[in-house]
Amino acid sequence: MSDLLASMPAAQPYANLLVGNETGDDAAVYKLNDQQALVATTDFFMPVVDDPYHFGQIAAANALSDVYAMGATPIMALALVGVPINVLPPSDIAGILQGGANICEQAGIPVAGGHSIDSVEPIYGLAAMGLVHPAHVKRNADAKAGDVLILSKALGIGIYSAAFKQNRLADDQYQAMLASTTQLNRPGATLAQMPGVHAITDVTGFGLLGHTLEMARASGLAAELNQHALPWLPGVINLAEQGVVTGASGRNWASYGAFIELPGNTSETTRALLCDPQTSGGLLISCSPETAPKVLDVLHSEGFNYATVIGQLRDGTAKVEVTDVNKK
After folding, report:
1. What sign has the CA pseudo-torsion 229, 259, 271, 181?
2. CA distances (Å), 61 to each of 116, 123, 317, in order?
3. pTM, whole model, 2 decimals?
4. Which DSSP category does 55 fall into?
5. How many C-beta atoms surround the C-beta of residue 195 within 10 A?
6. How far is CA 80 from CA 73, 108, 114, 127, in A?
7. Number of Cα atoms under 13 Å in the Cβ half of residue 19
8. Which CATH number fits domain 138-323: 3.30.379.10, 3.40.630.30, 3.40.50.2300, 3.90.650.10?
9. Looking at the domain covering 2-135, what would its CATH class be?
10. How do residues 189-217 score in pLDDT, each as one tens digit?
11. What are the boundaries of each domain within the chain?
12. Angle at which helices 247-256 and 207-219 cross, to 10°
């Protein structure tokens, strides 16, 4: 998708458009005045779980994540709904909408309207808007050499989703998937006000490697990830070793693998894990080493128990190097 955006004709210059599609950032940002900038984004997809209410929750949290990743606080959302009207029971449609409304209520915002169409497959998401001080906008292009990289959520949602479709996901793992994908990335608005936090993005469909590479490219830096520091949801590695992976992980690798350096002993399973697409994934935060403990304190206090330092950024050609520092 980032390649498609890059092929779009360049937008006419607008002095108040602070963030457009130039660096594949999480949302557009338009300066309203010296104190406020509007953050606008949209995201929607087909069901990733069977329960309509849970689907609505996950899709809404995923859409709002882009607002938080820019350092903003959501103010309003519009629902985007596509359903096979003559196929899907009205109670299921209501469940999807109620799930989305529940997440927006948690975010403290209204679902103020939206649009619906009759479609072959169910589709749900949000157009979300937020506000941020122009000085606190966190682009993925503002990371600095010497920064450390912090990931706020555990990885493995794509693996869980594949296992769910194969009826191989345990009940406790389903609950872990639901807890992760519905956890709002609201600390992004707090972290954006810390002077030592330089860039934020969220990890979604391109997987950890893809979104780290986006940040490295946009900032003109090289990224290094410690393979053994990465947090994984319970049982994810075991599921992957049993062959439970997504087709999207392979497509991700095909699209950006030329810019990734993996240890020589890396298995296809590990590569699939590193490219695993995330739904409503965590924040990837670039900050000074001195600021990292404060960032972790904020995340842990907000219930992001998996939050940890996973790597660093340095001068160099834009790429992502995965290191095997625990190798004997």
Report:
1. positive
2. 19, 15, 34
3. 0.93
4. H
5. 8
6. 20, 19, 6, 7
7. 28
8. 3.90.650.10
9. alpha beta
10. 999 999 999 999 999 999 999 999 999 99
11. 2-135, 138-323
12. 20
